[in-house]
Give the backbone structure.
Amino acid sequence: MKYMHTMVRVHDLDASLAFYCEGLGLTEVRRMENEAGRYTLVFLAAPQDLIDERPGEAPPLVELTYNWETEDYGGGRNFGHLAYEVDDIYATCQRLMDHGVTINRPPRDGRMAFVRSPDNISIELIQTGERLIPAEPWTSMPNTGVW
């Protein structure tokens, strides 16, 4: 068995791509428009997964599914969350904040944070290797909302 991808339905493809690509730093690797089915699929990968990709093997992906007809998907909380390992959790959280993203669970411990996508999907960020030394503004930043 091999992990392939996780599909997330999105309401606003542009807002979602800004979050996942500009905010989180994922890379679009493939896009599929289906006129008959009236949907767009966009597949994203973490840059390190693209570097580590083995010949003939696809990296693990996030599939953003944008249905052209609007639909209420309900809360993304029942989905759980996506998790990404990051080289510098503080820099990643700062970059997301600079893009207007709320840090729901700040990395007070230098190890873990949670944010939400424009479609309310919970995203866990985990520091690669050892935790970073706890630092401001993160150590005194309160939790916001749910994750």
The chain has a mean pLDDT of 88. Residues 2 and 12 are 30 Å apart (CA to CA).
